[in-house]
Amino acid sequence: MCPVIGAIAGGNTLIVKPSSKTPKVSEVIAKIMSVFDTDYAYVNCNRDEDLFDQKFDFMFYTGSSQFAKLIREKQAKFLTPCILELGGKSPCIVDADADVDLAAKRIAWGKFLNAGQTCVAPDYCVVHKEIKDDFIEKLLFYIKKFFYTGEALSDDFPFVITQQKVDEITKLIEGENILCGGKSVGRKMEPTVLMGITFDSPIMQEEIFAPILPVLEFEKLNDLLEQLKGKEKPLAFYYFSQSAAAGEYIAQHTISGGACINDTIMHLTEINLPFGGVGMSGYGSYHGKKSYDAFVHYRSVLVKGKTEIEAKYPPYSKNKLNFIKSYFKIDDN
C-alpha cells in the first residue's frame, strides 16, 4: 500500500494488481480501495496477463525477479519507466564479538516473520566458528519461545502461500541436517534450522521465501566477504557485531539494497530511509517522501524575461568568447 499512497499523493490514476495467488488478500485490498471511483483507482483481482501488454506511464512491481523480467520485456516497447522491488538471498553474518543472545533473538524474529515470506528476510545465516554452538543454542531457544505452545506449533504461525511451495522446499531440504522443524501439515510448515550447509547446497541456489534458515560458518570475515562478492546483490544485508568500526567496514565494503547492523528487517520501519534494491534485487526506491517522488515527474520550466545576452547570437567573435569565459568563470589554464 505504500506505493499506492505515493501514487495517489502524486495525483495519478492507478491500477492495483495484487497477486492471483492471494485471493483473500486481493479481496481486502479491493475493499479498501473501493472508497475511490474506479475511473481513478481500480483493483484488478483477475489473472489477467494481458494487463501488462497495455501502455502505462509508470509501473511499480514487487515480487519475483522472474516475473519482473517478463513485465520489463512486455513494457520495453513503450519504454515504460518503473521501480522493481524484488528480493534475493539476503545474508546475515554473526561475527565472533556479537551479542549472541541478542543476535539469535532478532534473527529468529526477522527470519520467521510471516513464515519467512518477506522480501527482506535473512535468507541464510553465516556464523563465526567460535560462537556457532552458542548461537545455535540461543536460536533454538527463541524459536521455541516465539512460535510454539508447549510442543505444538502456535495456531497463529502463518501458512506458506501454496502447497506447491511447501513441496518444493520440502524436496530441497531432503537429506540435510535438520536441527529443528522440517515437518509440515498441509501448508503450515515448522520453523526449520539447517546445519552442515554450504553455498553449493540445493537450498542455497535461490531465494528461500519460506520458514527455513540454513546456518553456515566462517573463520575470516574478509574471506567471507570476498566469497559474497561473487553472488548477486541482495535486497538486504545483515551484520551483527559489537564493534562500531566493523559495522562501518561492512557498510563500506558490501553492496545491497539496504542494510541493518545488529538487527533485521527494522530498516524498513524508518520512513526517512529510502527502500529499494540494486542489481537483481531491483532498482528504484520508495518509502516516506520517496513514495511520492517515485510517482511524480519533476518538470523543469523556465520563464524568460526581456533581459538578453547578445553573446549567444552569431556572428561569434573573440570578444564574445572572452565574455562567456568570464561570465561562467572558465579558466583557460
Tell me what you see in this structure.
With 333 residues, the protein is α/β, with parallel strands linked by helices. It has 2 domains: 2-85 and 285-294, 3-Layer(aba) Sandwich (Aldehyde Dehydrogenase, Chain A, domain 1), CATH 3.40.605.10; 91-269, 3-Layer(aba) Sandwich (Aldehyde Dehydrogenase, Chain A, domain 2), CATH 3.40.309.10. It is built from 10 helices and 18 strands. The strands form 6 sheets. Strands 9-12-13-6-5-14-15 form a 7-stranded mixed sheet, with helices on both faces. A 3-stranded mixed sheet has the order 3-4-17, with no helix packed on it. Strand 5, helix 4 (100-112) and strand 6 form a beta-alpha-beta unit. Helix 4 (100-112) crosses helix 5 (132-147). The protein is globular. The mean pLDDT is 95.
Break the fold down into its secondary structure elements and pairings.
Blueprint: H1 2-9, E1 14-16, H2 23-33, E2 41-43, E3 59-62, H3 65-75, E4 82-85, E5 91-94, H4 100-112, E6 124-128, H5 132-147, E7 148-149, E8 152-153, H6 163-172, E9 177-180, E10 184-185, E11 188-189, E12 192-195, E13 212-218, H7 221-229, E14 236-240, H8 244-253, E15 258-261, E16 275-276, E17 282-283, E18 285-286, H9 289-294, H10 318-327
Parallel strand pairs: 1-2, 3-4, 5-6, 5-14, 6-13, 12-13, 14-15
Antiparallel strand pairs: 4-17, 7-8, 9-12, 10-11, 16-18
Helix pairs in contact: 4-5
